[in-house]
Amino acid sequence: MEWWAWLVVGFVALLLVRKPVRQFKMGQHLSRMATVFEEIEWMLHLKPSETVAGVDSLPVDRRVRAIAVLNAGTDYLGAFPRHVVTRELVKNALLAQRMGRTSRVVAIHLLIESLVTKGVALDPDEFVKSYA
Length: 132
Description:
It is a single chain. This protein is mainly α. The chain has one domain. It contains five helices and no strands. Helix 3 runs antiparallel to helix 4. The N and C termini lie far apart (about 55 Å). The mean pLDDT is about 85.
């Protein structure tokens, strides 16, 4: 095959693969961010008497990684429409609920609240109204 044919094949492959790869990466970021919030909730139940909450309740090494995960995820998710981010989180919460993972459902709820304040996700009430 000529070099230009390979170039055309590569370009077509890029067009076909780009959207699924972006969706996969979005799922990875959402999953990692939900795991961070799940760890935070777990630490609050482990040490309920401490007044430190949020990311600060994690050990120092884990806190640094958690902040990096949350910042990278927020930056990446900012490229998607807010209703898409919210829809994926709601789907994940429903799946976690069916699997009996209540701590994951709580973590996803907290993640939605955090992303709403950062302007990356829709408020659940707005989300429901947009589909009604």
